[in-house]
Amino acid sequence: TTLQDHPALLSRIQQLESECDQQGIRTINRTEGLLRMRKSECGDWLAKAGVRAPKAVSIVNREQFQHDIGDLEFPLLIREELIHGGHAPSYLVQNYRELGTVPLHQMAQPFASEYIDTRGDDGNYRKYRYVAIGEIGIPFTQQVSPTWEARTKSRITNKQTTAEELEFMKQPDPNHDLFQHAMKIIGLDYAAFDYSYTSEGQPVVWELNVTPGWGKYNSKRSYVQIAQDKIFAATLAFYFSSAGLDVPDALSVWKERKIA
What we know:
Blueprint: H1 7-22, H2 31-34, H3 39-48, E1 56-58, H4 62-68, E2 76-80, E3 91-93, H5 96-99, E4 110-114, E5 125-133, E6 136-145, H6 159-170, H7 176-186, E7 190-197, E8 203-209, H8 222-242, H9 253-256
Antiparallel strand pairs: 1-4, 2-3, 2-4, 5-6, 5-7, 7-8
């Protein structure tokens, strides 16, 4: 769920933020930014920062949406607002007939978004992740998939895709300045950007994740573990510096460890 769904908790967090402000204590990812993370609203904030993101609307009146599709156009995507990742189905809807097969009344808080085709010349889809930690940006993973919903379960892993991912992770993200600008506009200090490219080379940000999940990686992709370790070290260094403390030398590993 989101903070909007828990007013008492939101009020308490804002009270704690105010108390921290009074004592000169910095807070990271303040509620002003977190409240802009709702999937159906985040795209508007990204657009204000000059970042392309799918247009999206909350499906409040399910019957009405089946007639006017929220002023969107087909094809469109329908997903759950409050459930992340692959824990709930997503629907790619091409027309009104297909829309009629989507179980809207069984969904908790459905929302619809514009479908943007990001298929590559080889017919596959690529999703990239960039992790912003303050002014630090770390490229973290590329997924190649034959399906539009690029997730781990559909990942293509071979010599070519491994080489592509390594190249992506070794270089500074080409969208660093744009994504950093978006962070400032939205009001966040820490977030993971999931994005792809259109055929014209324009980045499309699907969502920002302020609580990205992490995992263990097998021997074929051990380099991802190295990048993850760099992210953890950079995050700790950011916490130290945000608190006005000296950053321990050991945390410089985020700068020194190379993706090989």
